[in-house]
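OP here, attaching both records as promised.
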Amino acid sequence: MIYLATGPAGEITLPSPVRIRLDRDADAPADGFEGTFPLPAGGGQMTGLTVYDETGNIFFDGIVDEQEEDLTGGTLSLSGRSRAALLLDNEALPQNYVNPSLATVFDRHIRPYGFTRFLGDEKSFTGTLAVTKGMSEWAAAAAFCSRFLKTEPRIANGIFDASGSAPEYEFVFGKSGIRFSSGLARGRYCELYSELYMMDPDGGTYTLSARSDDAAALSVARRRFLSAGTDVSAVLKKAGQSAFTCVLDCPGAVSAPLLSPARITEPPSGFEKSLCVSALRYLLDAEGEHTRITLRRE
């Protein structure tokens, strides 16, 4: 891979790293990066970092949060996040939108930070959106997507994606697929809900809105009472995703886009249903490189 750092003095190509860790998570807007390199001569202050893989594609593009130079050990350590971090670090201007659209929200909260494209329904929606004091730019945009588009936005390949669609290519792990040296299937049954009750907006009473088949099969008793207007299906889905995860340690660099469909050729019990890539951790150290893939239910 090629590591290019930028700063007040310009651009510099960093030497081959001693250690690298890259984290991506479907539930986190920004990727995380930590790297240790031999200390380059005349590097100076570094505020940006771009990593290219062997095919010339961008593997990471972000800002440097911390820079440390070991003057006796001769190493440079960089810690940073992808450019989506700018949307988390900046506070949104408090304002009220009437009949908002994705284009308007994008232009005011996302575009000023270097993003030029978005995906999603472009029509104007009837209603109001309040951006309150203390909300980040990301929180403001995500609030619009959640309320009006019924999607969770993400940054993919430098694009603000509010379409709700996922990659189509399926990654297969195990025999005849991507080899993994170790795997851990985890069932957190305490995450499941057996029954969800919704408040009636008129009478103030709660009525049963949904039951979980997974909770029933496992004899899990855990009920919750939800506010009026809560998306019950989304709550059940989120619980199921948290309850069933599988972590696979794969040799080499595996570049699997988040939310890509996935399956295990010989799945453990509870993982026969459709899975997707929910997190990725790439590690490079003295023992070589490997990628830790986390799968969850779609």
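Record two, same layout:
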Amino acid sequence: MIRTILVDDEPVILEDLKLMIKDFKNIEVVGAYTDPQEVLQELSILRPDCAFLDIEMSDLNGIELAAKLSEKYPDIEVMFITAYNHYATQAFEVNAIEYILKPVRPERLAKAITKISQKIKYRKSLAHVSLKIRSFGNFEVFVGHKPIRWTRTKPRELLAYLLQNDGKWVDKYKICDDLWRTLKPEKALASLQTAVWAIRKTLSQSGCMAKINYAHDSYQLNLPETEWDLQQFDDAYDIFLRTGLAERGKEAELLYTGEYLNGEDWLWADLIRESYAQKYRNLKQRLY
């Protein structure tokens, strides 16, 4: 059963939507609210799988609410139900799965709920699939044993950039300055949105559970359990420095299969590349 919450500051519309959803046997409304702040206060009790949100609400609008929901529950599926069509770009920036215009037609709602059901079922079926990332030598991402193939270079670069920030939120204007500094601001932002969309699509089609979150004009890469050579190197290297255990030092040595993001002319990676090269030189000196 899919647990869902409904949020709309118009009680009549909220009740109508609640009644429409009751016709679907695979979805349970665990909360219906006119006050977005109340939703946030009760979120840990509700544990929703998806949320149906109005956009134009007082105090906290639906876009802002979606961002806050995603911060607490990165896997939540968000569907916007609104009377306005000019929020579509903002809606899909926060990774909304659907955007439905009011008045809601039953057949449109049915199509959206089917889409949500299929996505949640698919995600659960992939829970066991491992993710592997190689940052030393050639940059590669594997889902299971299959490498992800990229049709364009910028989405691949953006993924590596977000990985380098290791779960931290990165301001979208900083991303544009680092990756699209030669473009005008509006063109750079459009290119960023296109690249984010391409990453989401590519990772989803590959069966990867990684997710790019968006909130407060910033992006964050949220990873499932991952085998990442850079993290493994850091762990082994730090233990070797603290304890002097040679086996951990040799483990770190084996993990360093080449320079960080070798062969990529990404200026934002230069300092990190040199930092790891220095760590490797230090490691070799201590080992031998």
